[in-house]
Amino acid sequence: MIEILNPTELARARESGALVGGILRALKERSTVGTNLLDIDRWTRDMIDAAGAKSCYVDYAPSFGNGPFGHYICTAVNDAVLHGMPHDYRLADGDLLTLDLAVSLDGIATDSAISFVVGGASLPADVAAESRALIEVTERALAAGVAAAGPGARIGDLSHAIGTVLGGAGYPINVEFGGHGIGSTMHQDPHITNTGRPGRGYRLRPGLLLALEPWVMVDTDVLVTDADGWTLRSATGCRTAHSEHTIAITDDGAEILTLPR
């Protein structure tokens, strides 16, 4: 299903996106050395409830997961990159943490992810540099994908822009999981791989919402699944990073919805 939102729905999407961005900003500020992942999940639940919104994750049970997910946010640490299930773990100095959040407010879902290093004073210089490079390349790839989006562009143009940045930096690119359409539900068509050929795929129209989410692993494109049935990790144990925004296609370009106000 591909949805095209009307102006009233787009206004609601902006509110939903601002909520997601604000929650992620607050969680980043509160996530320090010693913070338990289960506390992050609890804080997320409290902020979603306070806003009168709904979690897109608690009852999420796709074919690839061991659902329902049962938590309010994905918390992926170091070699985990996608669908990180919160568990009883306290963040250590230098951990690379990814927070991925999708929320529905007034019937419109938005989705965003951020990666950052917790503390870092004790992190070896080479690992610190590697972590910064990972995070930075996903952010640059995301910006490239947004810049390529607009009415008349094709999905392949966005994929190509993202993949050019990721591949140009020397990172392997996994195409199993990527961006997606979003709207009244969290995951919709079209699928947006993190590399691709320009000029191919669905032509973008004003009112379309897309979640773009470049992610990389240092030295592999192979994922392995934890015993929890959800958390996806790098097959080699290398570090990972993930950046994501929900955007709206407008008459003259693309608008990022998931920035905090």
UniProtKB/TrEMBL annotation:
<feature type="binding site">
    <location>
        <position position="180"/>
    </location>
    <ligand>
        <name>a divalent metal cation 2</name>
    </ligand>
</feature>
<feature type="binding site">
    <location>
        <position position="213"/>
    </location>
    <ligand>
        <name>a divalent metal cation 2</name>
    </ligand>
</feature>
<dbReference type="GO" id="GO:0005829">
    <property type="term" value="C:cytosol"/>
</dbReference>
<feature type="binding site">
    <location>
        <position position="244"/>
    </location>
    <ligand>
        <name>a divalent metal cation 1</name>
    </ligand>
</feature>
<dbReference type="InterPro" id="IPR036005">
    <property type="entry name" value="Creatinase/aminopeptidase-like"/>
</dbReference>
<dbReference type="GO" id="GO:0006508">
    <property type="term" value="P:proteolysis"/>
</dbReference>
<dbReference type="Pfam" id="PF00557">
    <property type="entry name" value="Peptidase_M24"/>
</dbReference>
<dbReference type="InterPro" id="IPR000994">
    <property type="entry name" value="Pept_M24"/>
</dbReference>
<feature type="domain" description="Peptidase M24">
    <location>
        <begin position="13"/>
        <end position="251"/>
    </location>
</feature>
<comment type="subunit">
    <text>Monomer.</text>
</comment>
<comment type="function">
    <text>Removes the N-terminal methionine from nascent proteins. The N-terminal methionine is often cleaved when the second residue in the primary sequence is small and uncharged (Met-Ala-, Cys, Gly, Pro, Ser, Thr, or Val). Requires deformylation of the N(alpha)-formylated initiator methionine before it can be hydrolyzed.</text>
</comment>
<keyword id="KW-0479">Metal-binding</keyword>
<dbReference type="GO" id="GO:0070006">
    <property type="term" value="F:metalloaminopeptidase activity"/>
</dbReference>
<feature type="binding site">
    <location>
        <position position="100"/>
    </location>
    <ligand>
        <name>a divalent metal cation 1</name>
    </ligand>
</feature>
<keyword id="KW-0031">Aminopeptidase</keyword>
<keyword id="KW-0378">Hydrolase</keyword>
<comment type="similarity">
    <text>Belongs to the peptidase M24A family. Methionine aminopeptidase type 1 subfamily.</text>
</comment>
<protein>
    <recommendedName>
        <fullName>Methionine aminopeptidase</fullName>
        <ecNumber>3.4.11.18</ecNumber>
    </recommendedName>
</protein>
<dbReference type="GO" id="GO:0046872">
    <property type="term" value="F:metal ion binding"/>
</dbReference>
<dbReference type="InterPro" id="IPR001714">
    <property type="entry name" value="Pept_M24_MAP"/>
</dbReference>
<dbReference type="GO" id="GO:0004239">
    <property type="term" value="F:initiator methionyl aminopeptidase activity"/>
</dbReference>
<feature type="binding site">
    <location>
        <position position="187"/>
    </location>
    <ligand>
        <name>substrate</name>
    </ligand>
</feature>
<feature type="binding site">
    <location>
        <position position="244"/>
    </location>
    <ligand>
        <name>a divalent metal cation 2</name>
    </ligand>
</feature>
<feature type="binding site">
    <location>
        <position position="111"/>
    </location>
    <ligand>
        <name>a divalent metal cation 1</name>
    </ligand>
</feature>
<feature type="binding site">
    <location>
        <position position="83"/>
    </location>
    <ligand>
        <name>substrate</name>
    </ligand>
</feature>
<keyword id="KW-0645">Protease</keyword>
<feature type="binding site">
    <location>
        <position position="111"/>
    </location>
    <ligand>
        <name>a divalent metal cation 2</name>
    </ligand>
</feature>
<dbReference type="InterPro" id="IPR002467">
    <property type="entry name" value="Pept_M24A_MAP1"/>
</dbReference>
